[in-house]
Design goal:
With about 475 residues, the chain is an all-alpha fold. Helices cover about 70% and strands about 0% of the residues. It contains 20 helices and one strand. It has helices spanning about 20-30, 35-60, 70-75, 85-90, 90-95, 105-120, 130-150, 150-170, 180-205, 210-230, 235-255, 270-300, 305-315, 320-330, 345-370, 375-380, 385-400, 405-415, 430-435, 445-475; one strand spanning about 425. Helix 6 packs antiparallel against helix 7, helix 12 crosses helix 15 (about 345-370) and helix 16 (about 375-380) packs antiparallel against helix 17. The termini are far apart.
């Protein structure tokens, strides 16, 4: 009799030692009599509130149509749901305010350029390889070409591919080391930047558009200074430089117009979600750097700088944002000469930026106090000057520590953009209120407020989750 050949059997899976679904409920929801009571109360509240809300907002809602008559007919037929046709018909106003319909492509183009520039910065894990970043730039350029034509495609291609070229072209010996005297190198570098900016100014003045010559010449001067004195930057570093120099000028020209053949769109036509994001993004981008400077000034050993910083921070934190907006809109023009005027939106942006800079300064100051004294002493032992020590050692560690506080301020800033309505600017919530006053759509208050709340919640939740992502990635235990 022939014995069967022994074959090993595959390993059995590990036994399930978890508590199971029943055990999870017992452990997390009914562990004590108090927890069991809270669970039952919460379940009762959800049963009372969620089903009617779902019936009103989804099941019995009116989705299709283009006039109020559709919703009225559904209501007469016994349907008591929401009328989302109102949001559908007014969607253009909710998104763009009263921006001219034929010019809304300019808003879309500016947002697309910003998104394409920020994605490699804010998603480094996804786009950590140069090849992926180049593919993103190519895809963005092709998308712009298909949507807006070849002229916008040329601009976005230049903007997105410039950081790669700048990183590779300017990797030589720093300009300051080309001369024996550093003071001589600084003087020559500033002179070269002024000459370069002047040449760009006259080239634009004579050959392109006289109205844009001054701003473009100034930006060219600033970029020349970066090229001469801060040449050894990575691709990400050059993206930040372009984001704070070239993009604001491009966005201003694109959104306001009156240059390069673009029709003028005055800021009182801006509104809706577009205005909300414009105010929020501008406020975030300007308040944080100003807040860092104020925090450093408050910790300065120079009495005048410290006194000015403390006075500004305490004064601004002692008044509400509404009063700052009123001062910027009503009182500030009274101190200007008769022929000098500033746009109302610009005054609001400046007021919001300095208001939140005071709050961010205190957040940054708390982070600075958490940095060990040895970090300062080590940098000074290396002979580093103050700004180099702060820029390369202290501030990066500080920002990493205060990410939750900064995210909290950013969330407050985004929601406080609704206060610009008190000075006559209609953001998303302001446009929703104005839409409710339309005689053709009276009575749809709930739909307007719920839509605005959902949009704000989406953006706030995105900021919150991204701050959690940054906390995990830049936590000290990961370094």
């Amino acid at each position: 009799m022939m014995l069967a050949k022994w074959r090993p059997k595959p390993s059995l899976p590990s036994p399930n030692v978890g508590p199971g679904l029943t055990g999870w409920f017992r452990k997390n929801l009914f562990s004590t009599p108090g927890n069991a009571l809270l669970t039952l109360v919460c379940a009762a509240i959800l049963l009372v509130t969620v089903p009617p809300l779902l019936r009103w907002g989804l099941l019995n809602a009116t989705w299709l149509g283009d006039s109020r008559g559709v919703c009225d007919a559904a209501s007469q037929g016994g349907s008591s749901g929401a009328c989302w046709v109102f949001i559908k018909v007014r969607m253009g106003v909710f998104m763009y305010g009263f921006y001219p319909l034929a010019e809304r492509w300019r808003v879309n183009f500016a947002v697309l350029v910003l998104a394409s520039a920020l994605l490699p910065i804010f998603a480094p894990n996804l786009l950590h390889k140069t090849r992926r970043q180049i593919l993103l730039s190519i895809a963005a350029t092709l998308t712009v070409f298909c949507l807006f034509g070849w002229v916008p495609a040329v601009f976005i291609a230049f903007y997105l591919f410039a950081p790669f070229a700048l990183e590779r072209l300017f990797q030589g010996k720093p300009f300051l080391e080309l001369f024996g005297s550093q003071a001589l190198a600084v003087a020559i570098g500033i002179a070269l930047a002024v000459v370069g900016g002047g040449l760009v100014y006259y080239a634009v003045l004579l050959g392109v558009d006289a109205k844009a010559a001054g701003a473009i010449g100034l930006i060219a001067l600033v970029l020349m200074l970066f090229l001469l004195f801060v040449s050894r930057l990575t691709t990400t570093g050059w993206r930040w430089v372009l984001l704070f120099t070239v993009y604001p000028l491009f966005a201003f020209f694109m959104l306001v117009g009156d240059v390069f053949g673009l029709p003028l769109v005055e800021t009182h036509f801006w509104g809706g979600l577009f205005l909300t994001l414009a105010v929020a993004v501008t406020g975030m981008a300007t308040a944080l750097p100003i807040g860092i400077v104020l925090a450093l000034g408050r910790r300065s050993t120079l009495p005048v700088i410290k006194t000015l910083s403390v006075t500004f921070i305490e004064f601004v934190r002692g008044v509400p944002l509404v009063s700052v907006l009123f001062m910027a809109s009503v009182m500030f023009p009274l101190f200007l000469p008769e022929n000098v005027t500033f746009d109302k939106l610009l005054r609001a942006l400046v007021g919001i930026a300095f208001f939140y800079a005071a709050y961010m300064a205190e957040v940054i100051r708390g982070g600075l106090q958490a940095i060990p004294k040895g970090q300062f002493e080590a940098a000074m032992a290396l002979g580093w000057p103050y700004w180099k020590m702060m820029g390369l050692i202290i501030i990066p560690q500080t920002v990493r520590l205060v990410i939750p506080g900064l995210a909290n301020n950013f969330l407050s800033l985004l929601k406080d953009t609704t206060l610009v309505a008190v000075i006559g600017l209609l953001d998303l919530l302001g446009v929703a209120k104005a839409s409710m006053a339309d005689v053709e759509w009276l009575g749809f208050t709930k739909e307007a407020y719920i839509f605005a709340a959902i949009v704000f919640w989406i953006f706030c939740f995105a900021i919150s989750r991204y701050s959690v992502f940054l906390e995990k990635n830049y936590h000290t235990s990961r370094q």
